[in-house]
Amino acid sequence: MEQKIRIGHIEVVRREQRVASLFGMFSSLIAIFLALVAGGVVMAVVDINPFTAYGHLFAGAFASKTGCANTLIKTTPLLIAGLGLSISFRCNLINIGAEGQMIVGGIAATAVALYLPVSSPLLMFVFIFLAGFLAGGFWGAVPGILKAKFGISEIINTIMLNYIAIHVLSFMLDGPLREPDNYYPQSAKIAQEFWLAKILDGTRLHAGFLIALVLVLFYYLLFYRLPQGFRIRTVGYNPKAARYAGMSVSSNVVLAMFLSGAFAGIAGMSEILGMHHRLYNEFTSGYGFDAISIALLGKLHPLGVVLAALFFGALRVGANAMQHVVQIPIAIVYVIQGLAVLFILTDTFFRTYILTSYKRKGLKRRKRA
Amino acid sequence: MSSLFDISITGVLTATIRMAVPLVLASLGGVFTARVGIINLALEGMMLFGAFSGFIGAVYSGSAIIGAVCGMAGGALAALILAFLSITAKANQTVAGVGINITALGITSYLLSTLFGYGNRPYGVASFSNIAIPVLSDIPVIGPVLFDHSLLVYVTYIAVPAVWYLIYRTPAGLTIRATGENPRAVDTLGGNVMRTRYLCTLASGVLAGLAGAYLTIGQMGQFMENVTAGKGYIAVAALIFGKWKPLGAVAASLLFGFAEGLQLRLQIGESPIPFQFLSMLPYVMTMVALLLFVGRAKAPAAMGKPYNRQD
Question: Is B290 an interface residue toward A (CB < 8 Å)?
Answer without folding.
Answer: yes
